[in-house]
Write a structure and sequence with these properties.
The protein has 413 residues and is an alpha/beta fold. The protein folds into two domains: 134 residues, Aspartate Aminotransferase, domain 1, CATH 3.90.1150.10; 230 residues, 3-Layer(aba) Sandwich (Aspartate Aminotransferase, domain 2). The chain contains twelve helices and 14 strands. The strands form four sheets. The chain has a seven-stranded mixed sheet with strand order 2-10-9-6-5-3-4, with helices on both faces. It has a three-stranded antiparallel sheet with strand order 11-12-14, with helices on one face. A two-stranded antiparallel sheet has the order 1-13. Strand 3, helix 4 and strand 4 form a beta-alpha-beta unit. The two termini are 37 Å apart. 50% of the residues are buried.
Length: 413
């Protein structure tokens, strides 16, 4: 099904773009609040799934058949093989496959013995799962603002939020870009708190030569289908250089059981399925190539849009490594930009339209005003970026944005 789209996380299914209505009016895909995506009737999708690559699809269907014929669906050698390969890919010692990125975060916090009475610093400009994992272990999220240029947490934000109850900080490598970690690591060492990396959008990115997810005590990954390394369902992993922490996560992901029916701690059911592990292992061999393509596409979009005299659309930050899970721009007329893009056949999305501290789920935290994230929420727009994007699609995205910035659009100014 070439051109299938996934606009935001988590969507439970891939929804086809709706047909263009009479007169070419704006079409808003059915969605729930915070997960909306404006879909074009044709042409450039927001991203592409595995079903758009016939050769890859056939290869992965063969993997599904192999797992089904063996009938071993929970843990087993497929999971162990993927864990070994993913640890080697991340250039660390251990990887533990789990059922989602959210579970990767919550199990990591439990492994670090973070719980009730503790506070965990994290950016409010993130997907809500980062905060949910903190809540799941009984700790309290301490939500902080982000840098206006990078959209990421910084050491200054962490320093301002430190207090006697803080036990951990979760830097989020958002959009595929890496947080400036060294100052945060130094602060954490001085304060005696843990650093847990949320690398759920940064598979393969590097910070000063090291893979994202390997600089803190543990690193967490999501393999949701639309991620740079995506499964055919939910999945996640925890990576670490600590054998003790890896062992704790393994124990917690499967009822605290070792050996069979001997439960050492109260754990959970948070295992990575063998089917997902087998698919991920096959796709892992392509990840560096896909990342290089995303970097190239991101650099080209930046160069083309910057060279066109773009004023109403501000470009993403250029420093640090970026594997472009998302290509996010800013505009004071964001909604008009998105409406214009639909008319030009270019899909878009918003990551994220509501900062975590402004959601109903965390209203009781009384985090106060976090102005940068609040401003970003009304300005950010994610443009399409994905491996396999053609030159014609790239040109169409650039051309559509240029038309908007030059006023060649029917959208209100």
């Amino acid at each position: 099904m070439p051109g299938a789209t996934v606009a935001d996380e988590p969507l439970n299914a891939v929804e086809p773009a709706p047909a263009a209505p009479a007169g070419g009016q704006l079409t808003l895909a059915a969605s729930t609040p915070g997960k909306e995506s404006l879909m074009p009737p044709t042409q450039v999708p927001f991203t592409r799934m595995d079903c758009a690559d016939p050769a890859l699809l056939e290869e992965l269907l063969g993997v599904v058949r192999e797992v089904a014929q063996r009938g071993a669906f929970t843990l087993g050698h497929h999971v162990e093989d993927f864990e070994r390969d993913f640890a080697a890919y991340c250039e660390t010692d251990f990887a533990v496959g789990v059922s989602s990125g959210t579970d990767a975060l919550s199990l990591s916090l439990r492994a670090l013995e973070v719980g009730p009475g503790d506070e965990v610093i994290l950016p409010t400009n993130s997907f809500i799962a980062t905060a949910e994992a903190v809540s799941a272990v009984g700790a309290t999220p301490r939500l902080v603002d982000v840098d206006p240029d990078s959209h990421l947490i910084s050491a200054d934000h962490v320093a301002a939020a430190l207090g006697p109850r803080v036990r951990c900080v979760i830097p989020v490598h958002l959009y595929g870009a890496t947080v400036d970690l060294d100052p945060i690591l130094a602060l954490a060492r001085d304060a005696g708190i843990h650093v847990l990396e949320d690398a759920c959008q940064a598979h393969g990115a590097r910070y000063r030569g090291r893979r994202a997810g390997t600089l803190g005590a543990l690193g967490c990954f999501s393999f949701y289908p639309a991620k740079n390394l995506g499964a055919w369902g939910d999945g996640g992993a925890v990576v670490t250089a600590s054998p003790e922490l890896a062992d704790r996560v393994r124990l917690l992901r499967s009822h605290g059981e070792r050996p069979r029916y001997h439960h050492r701690v109260a754990g959970s059911t948070a295992r990575l399925d063998a089917l997902q592990a087998a698919i991920l292992r096959r796709k892992l061999t392509r990840l560096d190539g896909w990342s290089d393509e995303r970097r190239r596409l991101g650099a080209t979009l930046r160069r083309c849009l910057a060279g066109s005299g773009v004023d109403p659309v501000r470009l993403p930050f250029p420093d640090a490594d970026h594997v472009h899970h998302l290509f996010v721009v800013r505009s004071d007329r964001r909604d008009a930009l998105r409406e214009h893009l639909v008319g030009e056949g270019v899909a878009s999305a918003i990551h994220y339209p509501v900062p975590i501290h402004a959601t109903g789920a965390y209203a009781e935290l009384d985090s106060g005003s976090l102005p940068v994230a609040e401003s970003l929420a009304g300005q950010i727009c994610s443009l399409p970026i994905f491996p396999g994007m053609t030159q014609a699609e790239l040109d169409q995205i650039v051309g559509a944005v240029e038309k908007f910035t030059k006023g060649e659009t029917g959208a209100p100014r």
